[in-house]
Amino acid sequence: MVTEDLDDVDGVLFVNDLFRSSSRRRAIGVSLPDEREIERKIREPLRLTESLAVFEALEEMRQQHRTFAVVMDEHGGVAGVVSTRDLLEPLVGDLGDEFDEDEEEDVAKITELRWLIQGQAHIDKVAEVAGCPIPEGEYVTIGGYIIDQLGFFPQEGVMVVHENWVLRVYRVEKRRILEIIGEEYPDGVPQEMVDAALKSQKKPE
User: Fold this and answer.
1) 83-116: burial string, b at 16+ Cβ within 10 Å, e else
2) Which stretches within 33-136 are classed as H helix?
3) Exposure string (b/e) for 67-78, b if CB count within 10 Å is 16 or more?
4) Structurally, how many domains does the chain consist of?
5) In this structure, are residues 139 and 121 in contact, taking their beta carbons and an 8 Å threshold?
6) How many CB atoms lie within 10 A of CB 60?
7) Which residue among 15, 96, 132, 196 has the highest number of C-beta atoms inside a 10 angstrom radius?
8) Domain that holds residue 173
9) pLDDT tens digits, residue range 106-143?
10) In a domain, 6, yes or no
11) Where residue 193 sits, what CATH number does that domain have?
């Protein structure tokens, strides 16, 4: 809930709270909260800084018993919102339920040496299908591996070099890596690609 400016967040109103009515209203099948009820159900949001690492954000949300937070930028403005699901899925894989639509193939060949990889693809699947061996760590998805290597959530275009592979973040949405382009260099990654990857990893000032 905001006033006149999107950076001025007054609170958060959840759908379940909005339509949770009194026992009398439930009994007659009416669930239309009035203005005073809506005001009472607005919650003070948890605010997290944009610079927080994924694990720090998860720990803060756990301590505050929150599943949703407003993300603030360095100037105090609203950068967006994030849920525990947004933070967890790059690390542990898809948390979708039985009602989710069928998803795209996790690892799809573009050319002989280039692959389109979903950020939620399990590292074992990436190794099995594309032949890109990802070491085990505190993650199970390739998106989680990239975040672990960088130490921050990447923008589109950021690249990570792993053995004979260059992994480029192709598409992101909010705090999720959706797609990655993986390209194999059988004779070794050229130095210019290594330099380009390092340059891409510099955070914008």
Assistant:
1) ebebbebbbebbeeeeeeeeeeebbeeeeeeebb
2) 35-41, 54-63, 84-92, 123-130
3) ebbbbbeeeeeb
4) 2
5) no
6) 16
7) 132
8) 107-200
9) 899 999 999 999 998 999 999 999 999 998 888 889 99
10) no
11) 3.30.465.10
